Amino acid sequence: MSKQKHFLRSPRKSTKPKDTIPQTANEFLAVGVDLEEAGEKWRAGDAQKSARFFLRALDNYEKGLQHFHGSFDLAYNRARLQYELAQQPRLLRYLPGATFDLLTTALNSHRYALEISRENPDLLFNTGQVLTSLGELISEEQHRHNDAVVVDPLGSFQEALTIFQQCLSLQELQFSQSHMAPQQSVEADSNATDTTSKDFSEHPHPLSQPLDEDTWATIVEPVTEQALMDTLLAQIETLTSICGLSSNRGISDLNWIDEYYRNFLHEKLLRFAKETGRHHEATLAKAKYWCALADARFTATMLDIPTYEKEVMGAYEIFPDSDPDPQALCDRADAEIVFAASVQKVWKQVMNRGPVEGMPEDVARLSIVRWKHLTKALDNLTLAAKLPKVKNLPRIHLRRGDCELLRRRLGAAPLNYDIALKSASTLLKNAEIYYRGAARLAQAEAAADEETEASVKEAVVIAVSTGEHSKLDKRLDLQRARAQEIIQDMTEEGLLWDKDMKSFSL
Q: Which partner for 380 in 25, 280, 329, 480 could form a disulfide, CB atoms 3.0-4.6 Å apart?
């Protein structure tokens, strides 16, 4: 989430006409903030009305910058709001352009603001966030369209790391200066002469003067340990995303990732996790990073299966079974699912090179390993769903349904895993139940994306298991493009057998 820039506004007289055209940068700022506040007011209840207010705020900032090109506050607010809107699923349908276009526009606006000033850590942090979001989106599109997207997401991630590092350096400097200032103030007071009898009435302090109706002052908040921790976590999350791209990039690419973590993040993460009390959050981030790095090394043939398995198992050992944490359980489940998928991917690459001695035994062992980890993932998700502090329950039930389909997939040729074959109908029924539950929960939470995904997956499972296509046909009639995209993703992720696709036509 981007960092909000705070402003202190003096009270405005009610006699000022509301329709007055802004004349100064501060007046444009006042109008923009008022429109943003109106947008926030309607965000939960009326997404379309909320979007209209936000778009009017953006238009106001644009007009303000046309008159006051060097206004940092206007440039900052425009860039921040553009990024925040691109991150709001409920508002996207009412915004002009696709998510990629919105993020690109937000990035350009952040670059504009950086040209005005590079000495604002919040702006640097937000710019890194935009670059990371853009890299993740490009990566997802490449995966979905089999690398047809020619833009390399690695460039966005690497630039994000550079920006985050600049942000961290500036934060450390300001943090150090803010802690030195009180001591310097004490020393200055001790050396000062007594001036209490001096009359300053002829030269009053500027703040004692009357303020204009819309006078604004930027609140410069001191850098805290929490802000430093935010930047460190943002960097490790970016490294985790880069690991997902590194399957085929070679040893040198993977080495720089680990060197970056050890040289720039490891010690500082330990220090500020302790000082901020955010040890749990840091541990989760590190566990995800180590699993992602292990997966990248495995797919680059730098690790064998037992070592990769040990890395995944060890990453979450620090979280006790006696006090289960829902986020840790979900993250571990994701790591288990990725493990099973990567083992299948590497095995398939080996198979494509030709027959291998001992292949039947290898296939049997790999099936057992994959079944074990998918079952562990399902168990973790099931436990997480029962915990009182769990978040995003629809997504958890979606993943439970995915796990059942992935376990069923092990019964397909050439694996023909016996347990999966015998349990196929039960696994399909379980998946149907989980997807239906996810759709109902998503509808109750107004989570449109999760509701659509869950409903389409439920309809697909019903079509596969019973041959009844009415529910799927209805979904195709309502949202054909999105439904086809979901079904394509199910195929690429190994949730369906080849013969499943023949049981219904798109």
A: 329
Burial class (CB in 10 A: 0-12, 13-18, 19+), 150: exposed
- Strands 7-9 and 216-218, how do they pair? antiparallel
| Tokens encoding 440 | 């109902």
497 closest CA partner among 400, 443, 416:
416
CA dist 161 and 158 (Å) reads: 5
Phi, psi (5° rounding) for residue 217? -130, 130
Residue (of 363, 406, 372, 396) closest to 496 by Cα position:
406
Report DSSP state, residue 197: T
Max Cα-Cα span within the chain? 98
Does the bond joining 17 to the residue before it have cis omega, within 30 degrees of 0? no
How many CB atoms within 10 Å of residue 264? 18
User: What is the DSSP code string of 127-157?
Assistant: HHHHHHHHHHHHHHHHHHTTT---S-HHHHH
- Tokens, residue 99: 């998510």
Q: Kindly report the pTM of this predicted structure.
A: 0.85
- The answer to whether the CB of 367 falls within 8 A of the CB of 415 is yes
CA distance linking residue 278 with residue 270, whole number of Å? 10
Which residues make beta-bridge pairs with 9? 216
Task: Look up residue 382 and give its two tokens.
Answer: 């099931």
Q: Provide CB contacts within 8 A for 235, sequence distance 6+.
A: 161, 164, 165, 168, 264, 265
Residue 479 CB coordination number (10 Å) = 15
> Residue 504's CB: how many other CB atoms inside 10 A?
17
468 in Cβ contact with 460 (< 8 Å): no
Handedness of CA 248, 149, 256, 234 (dihedral sign): negative
Cα dihedral sign, 290-295-300-305: positive
Dihedral, CA atoms, 46, 47, 51, 52, nearest 10 degrees?
-30
How buried is 278 (Cβ within 10 angstroms: 0-12 exposed, 13-18 middle, 19+ buried)? Answer: buried
Q: Is 95 helix (H, G, I), strand (E, B) or coil?
A: coil
Over its length of 506 residues, how does the chain's per-residue pLDDT go in tens digits?
676 554 444 333 334 445 678 999 999 999 999 999 999 999 888 999 999 999 999 999 999 999 999 999 999 999 999 999 999 988 988 999 899 999 999 999 999 999 999 999 999 999 999 999 999 999 888 766 655 555 788 999 999 999 999 999 999 999 998 877 555 554 555 555 444 433 433 433 333 344 454 555 666 678 999 999 999 999 999 999 999 887 545 455 788 999 999 999 999 999 999 999 999 999 999 999 999 999 999 988 889 999 999 999 999 998 887 788 999 999 999 999 999 999 988 887 776 766 555 455 677 888 999 999 999 999 999 999 999 989 999 999 999 999 999 999 999 887 889 999 999 999 999 999 999 999 999 999 888 889 999 999 999 999 999 988 898 988 888 888 899 999 989 998 999 987 887 766 65
